[in-house]
Specification:
By secondary structure, the protein is α/β, with parallel strands linked by helices. It has one domain: Flavodoxin domain (Rossmann fold). Helix content is 38%, strand content 16%. The protein contains 5 helices and 6 strands, in the order βαβαβαβαββα. Strands 1, 2, 3, 4, 5 and 6 form a 6-stranded parallel sheet that branches. Helix 4 links the parallel strand 4 and strand 5. Helix 1 crosses helix 5. It is globular and about 45 Å long. The structure holds flavin mononucleotide (FMN). Flavin mononucleotide (FMN) binds next to helix 1.
């Protein structure tokens, strides 16, 4: 096996400073094995999609697409907004899907997590799986990490405090690493 670490790009569907979904990504980073690096790409700098610009996209989009292309896998943590994926995340994915010949998500190993209220963002996850299917992502179906009643499992700064959820996150990180190796 190669010496270079497995490089995972992490995306959060929330820009909120104390976001619990960003907290899930921090927990993933903390539970990554020694041969894996998980880097967050902050979607805050991605402008609104404009198809007029898709062939000469803004520099933030160029950097975003390059980061996806060079990653061995992508880990997405997202809240649910109005039964769906937040616009911040959908907007970034739309950029990554254009133009049709330059789609870095095609064939990319991907894993999804969500944290939220009563249903833990499960409807957003289902919609994200549909979007990802359309974009050619290869999304792990399990283990599922769906964190309901997040307010009880994170501190006010969005740091994960629940050991059971931490174990789930670690399991997903390990599964994504194995998935990425298998598809390499
Ligand atoms: C615009 C908006 C829409 C939301 N819609 C839903 C929803 O449809 N279902 C749900 O379970 N929670 C919904 N929520 C609650 C968020 O899922 C919850 O605030 C979550 O903690 C946000 O994630 P974050 O901490 O990572 O920012 C909504 C929140 C916002 C701001």
């Amino acid at each position: 096996m190669a010496d270079s670490p497995t490089r995972i790009l992490a995306l959060a569907g929330s820009l909120r400073k104390n976001s619990v979904n960003r907290g899930l990504i921090r927990a993933a980073q903390e539970s990554a094995p020694p041969d894996m690096v998980i880097d967050l790409f902050d979607l805050a700098g991605i402008p609104l999609f404009n198809q007029d610009l898709e062939r000469e996209p803004p520099s933030a989009v160029v950097a975003f697409k390059a980061a996806i292309a060079s990653a061995d896998g992508v880990l997405i943590a997202t809240p649910e907004y109005n039964f769906s994926v937040p616009g911040v995340l959908k907007n970034a994915l739309d950029w990554a899907s254009r133009p049709p010949r330059e789609q870095p998500f095609v064939g990319k190993p991907v894993a999804i997590m969500s944290a939220g209220g009563r249903f833990g963002g499960v409807r957003a996850q289902l919609q994200l799986r549909q979007i990802g299917h359309g974009m050619g992502m290869l999304i792990l179906s399990r283990p599922e990490v769906i964190v309901e009643k997040a307010v009880e499992k994170f501190d006010p700064n969005g740091n994960l405090t629940d050991t059971g959820v931490r174990d789930q996150v670690q399991g997903l990180v390990q599964a994504l690493g194995a998935w990425a190796q298998r598809l390499a």
